[in-house]
TrEMBL record:
Name listed for the protein in its UniProt record: Pyridoxal phosphate homeostasis protein
Gene3D superfamilies with a match to the protein in the record: Alanine racemase
Alphabetical list of CDD domains matching this protein: PLPDE_III_YBL036c_like
Job description of the protein: Pyridoxal 5'-phosphate (PLP)-binding protein, which is involved in PLP homeostasis.
Cofactor(s) essential for the protein: pyridoxal 5'-phosphate
InterPro entries: Ala_racemase_N, PLP-binding_barrel, PyrdxlP_homeostasis
Keyword Ubl conjugation: no
N6-(pyridoxal phosphate)lysine modified-residue sites: 34
Pfam families with a match to the protein in the record: Ala_racemase_N
Source lineage: Bacteria, Bacillati, Bacillota, Candidatus Fermentithermobacillia, Candidatus Fermentithermobacillales
Length: 231
């Protein structure tokens, strides 16, 4: 793990917060550890990183079983299939990729079964740019999905997540991130409690600074921390 990468990312987060007039502590860094070996994860933890994002349930399961994440929070940021909901409810501290009522209902069922009364924090993944290559619920369905999740036991809705359309062009991303923030504000105005939409998870290695400027409370960074991973 390159200490300099961590320092550079933290400095960029701080600078973006300063430009936006925000407290640096208002932004949570998730280190996306897809295809990152356990040894590197432990090195990242030694450098103060405590939140890790995983894209695939099976890969995360193996790493968790190895003890790689001992003392850390593990968050699912990749697409979740309904048939993996049982594992997800047991493995993860948070699931940011709920994109349908079917997935939410499955997580609810298994959270009630396995989490001993501790609600599973979830976010709604919104395909804010309606990009056919991206997962996420359509923006116009986010309000009804949020209302449904609020009725499900075993889950705590904490906010919205998105992946910007395109190839990380900051100008394209900025519009998407602004649109997600405006969608959040509209959902609050239409009756979703503010406490259930506190979080905006948006921004990755190529565009996290504009995400922060547009209101991100969570950024999900992989390559800028760990370097390129194998395909």
């Amino acid at each position: 793990m390159n200490r300099e990468n961590v320092e550079i990312v933290r400095a960029r987060i701080e600078a973006a917060c300063k430009r936006a007039g925000r407290d640096v502590n208002s932004v949570r860094l998730i280190a996306v550890s897809k295809k990152v070996p356990a040894e590197t994860i432990r090195e990242a933890m030694a450098l103060g990183i405590k939140d890790f994002g995983e894209n695939q349930v099976q890969e995360a399961r193996a790493k968790i079983a190895s003890g790689a994440f001992a003392g850390a929070r593990v968050i699912l940021v990749g697409h979740l299939q309904t048939n993996k909901a049982s594992l997800a409810a047991r493995l993860f501290d948070e699931v940011q990729s709920v994109d349908s009522l079917r997935v939410a209902a499955a997580l609810s069922k298994f959270s009630v079964l396995y989490r001993n009364g501790k609600p599973l924090p979830v976010m709604i993944e919104v395909n804010i740019g309606k990009d056919p290559a991206k997962f996420g619920c359509p923006p116009e369905e986010a309000l009804s999905l949020a209302r449904a999740i609020l009725e499900l036991p075993g889950l705590f809705l904490s906010g919205l997540m998105t992946v910007a359309p395109g190839q990380g062009d900051p100008a394209v991303s900025r519009k998407a991130f602004r649109d997600l923030r405006l969608l959040r504000d509209e959902m609050i105005s239409r009756g979703i409690p503010r406490e259930n939409l506190q979080e905006l998870s948006m921004g990755m290695s190529s565009d996290f600074e504009v995400a922060i400027e547009e209101g991100a409370t969570v950024v999900r960074i992989g390559t800028a921390l760990f370097g390129p991973r194998p395909k």
